[in-house]
Automatic annotation (TrEMBL):
Keywords: Disulfide bond. It comes from Paenimyroides viscosum. It holds the Pfam family N-glycanase_C. Gene3D superfamilies: 2.60.120.230. InterPro entries: Cu2_ascorb_mOase-like_C (IPR014784), N-glycanase (IPR053251), PHM/PNGase_F_dom_sf (IPR008977), PngaseF_C (IPR015197), PngaseF_N (IPR015196). One of its GO terms (molecular function) is oxidoreductase activity, acting on paired donors, with incorporation or reduction of molecular oxygen, reduced ascorbate as one donor, and incorporation of one atom of oxygen. Residues 185-310 form the Peptide-N-glycosidase F C-terminal domain. This is Peptidase. The keyword Disulfide bond applies. Residues 98-156 form the Peptide-N-glycosidase F N-terminal domain. Signal peptide: none annotated.
């Protein structure tokens, strides 16, 4: 009887020990936040080319490694604007009220991007300092009919150790409200309206800094049907020295997985973009020797002259941001005209 009681007690202890050793539920490796849901943008009476909303993101992003944005471009039964339209998505800076371009994409012809499981994917980790707590977003499409486009957008906040603990981002230039609000190309333009020069001061305690640029060419001006179809190379000049080059050339339109855009003219390469694809981001690292001192920035287009035979003209829609990061608290860079 004594042996039997001992075995019962040992069994009970073992059962209790197993329960105590169980691991608590692990935290999810990512948090998905849904924002716009079938939001329609269109042109016409009572319609708008943009949609805005306020959404709640995680308040503390210390343990967030990356932030990915996914955009579903919805067009069922070809009930959308059939043309390849300029489109982008913004977040509002809570301090200044300025809209920051998170990403840019071009609608496909006739269809949506249903062939992509989650839609267009854009890494927006550089805008981490904006995407916390209550955040205002805006999505825009340069559509000119009542059919317009519909979008659903969500963000993945992926847990992990970030590359740097602190970061900040500020715009250097933004002429990106639409393709025709871009900088005129091939002729003189009003430098008060389109100023491509700035003075930049990066905090001395930054550990890394870089430019983040999105640029796409529009229009069919001659010669060369610029800026949509001609290959041009532009320069970022720092302290009047050509420092970085951006070549506006094809990015492989014919290989686009959104390959059901018939009868649209989606396969030929354009100046740095494709119908049904994200416009790529161009990154340029800034030398540490420039941190802590003011330097001049200028975005300079390759020389080309519009002969005036096509009234449509040529334009470059562009945004450039400067991103700084550090493992100690850091101030924003300062930008002056």
């Amino acid at each position: 009887m004594k042996k039997l009681l001992t075995l019962i007690l040992l069994s009970s202890f073992t059962l209790i020990s197993c329960k105590d050793d169980e691991k608590p539920d692990e935290e999810p490796s990512k948090i998905t936040i849904k924002t716009f849901d079938n939001a329609k943008v269109a042109f016409g009476e009572g319609l708008s080319q943009s949609a805005e909303g306020t959404f709640n993101f995680p308040a503390n992003l210390d343990d967030v490694k990356t932030i990915k944005m996914y955009i579903k471009d919805i067009c069922l039964n070809k009930d959308c604007d059939e043309w390849d339209r300029y489109a982008n998505l913004y977040a509002k800076d809570k301090t200044t009220g300025e809209w920051y371009e998170l990403g840019r994409f071009i609608n496909p012809y006739w269809v949506g991007n249903e062939k992509l499981e989650r839609g267009y994917e854009i890494d927006v980790t550089d805008f981490k300092s904006l995407l916390s707590g209550s955040t205002e977003l805006k999505i825009y499409t340069e559509t000119w009919n009542a059919k317009g486009r519909k979008y659903s957008v969500e963000f993945d906040f992926e847990k992990g150790t970030p590359d740097y603990k602190y970061s900040a981002v500020v715009p250097v230039i933004q002429y990106n409200k639409s393709s025709i609000d871009g900088v005129p190309y091939g002729k003189e333009f009003d430098t008060n309206k389109f100023d491509l020069t700035r003075q930049i001061n990066i905090p001395n305690d930054a550990e890394i800094a870089y430019f983040r640029t999105i640029i796409s060419g529009w229009g069919h001006a001659l010669p060369g049907t610029c800026a949509e179809w001609c290959v041009k190379t532009h320069n970022i000049k720092l302290n009047n020295t050509n420092t970085f080059q951006h070549k506006l050339e094809g990015i492989g339109c014919a290989k686009n997985p959104v390959d059901n855009q018939e009868p649209g003219n989606w396969k030929p390469d354009r100046a740095g973009w494709c119908p049904g694809m994200v416009v790529p981001v161009r990154f340029n690292n800034i030398q540490k020797s420039m941190f802590g001192t003011a330097f001049t920035f200028e975005y300079e287009f390759e020389n080309w002259t519009d002969n005036g035979s096509n009234k449509e003209g040529a334009y470059y829609a562009i945004s450039t941001f400067v991103v700084v990061k550090s493992n100690s608290p850091i101030n924003k860079p300062t930008i002056t005209n």
